[in-house]
């Protein structure tokens, strides 16, 4: 039932994403004692021009 | 004022999406007594490689 | 797999919320041909002081 | 620490987006007294066929 | 049509929140040329025990 | 820069939540090679009456 959304800058490989969902699912299952099959993960990628910290976008650095 | 976000795997047709927002808007309007014009719906599509249940992505099944 | 989030002003009764998730689940299942058991719905309630249109909060109307 | 998500219909220019994150960051920093470097902004664009008000999508108007 | 979500640690006053939605609405309206009445803002407050950077929650600092 | 949101049913202890953000931060850092200090995690708890699968809320089971 945990539903996880991970927003990150685009550019990771398919292998990194596979590894990401495996490891995060395991981490949640262990820490809050939830069966793995109840854990959903959504990856959302952002372009560098769509993410800013301190008013400056990654694409403008 | 209800603001609805529907996340689903990509691949539905344009007709299915049109039907989706019509039916969901009607369902909300009836059940919580909100005027239809106050209901906003956002559809967000995910690639199969960006959604996992139980640590396994749809693209890896 | 459709994951639905419904944000609305607080104050609906428990019966309205039960009705809401039943009707919205049925509406999605019919329109995009998804089995009901794959559809998750999250209700998120907002205080009137936490929602604004046109720069004016519901609590200030 | 304020984390801001701005969802809007696609089509704004890169200059408009740069201006958007600058102005919104300044507006938040002034109003809630947060240092600018603590403010993150995510822009999420929607196609017209993925946004509906009153059960009608922007692409169907 | 811009729909904005602002997540921040709880504790701001009602006046700060009123000011926040006014200023952010104006900032968006100016920068992307959207009528103010089309801009919705949702404020979501987090407890310090529900927000972490670098694996450490605000409540544990 | 990864920004993670974890939605789950309320009821976990403070220790479980501390453990959760530590382990998830480590899992992300390892799998996508991001420095821990760039990873933000937000926990959002839901009441059982605000979460449904298959049209039935957890509170109605």
UniProtKB/TrEMBL annotation, chains A, B, C, D, E, F:
Residues 2-60 form the 4-oxalocrotonate tautomerase-like domain. Gene3D superfamilies: Macrophage Migration Inhibitory Factor. Pfam families: Tautomerase. Keywords: Isomerase. GO terms for molecular function: isomerase activity. SUPFAM superfamilies: Tautomerase/MIF. Its EC number is 5.3.2.-. The keyword Membrane does not apply. The active site is at residue 2. The keyword Isomerase applies. It is an enzyme of class 5 (isomerase). PANTHER family: 2-HYDROXYMUCONATE TAUTOMERASE (PTHR35530:SF1), TAUTOMERASE-RELATED (PTHR35530). Belongs to the 4-oxalocrotonate tautomerase family. This is Tautomerase.
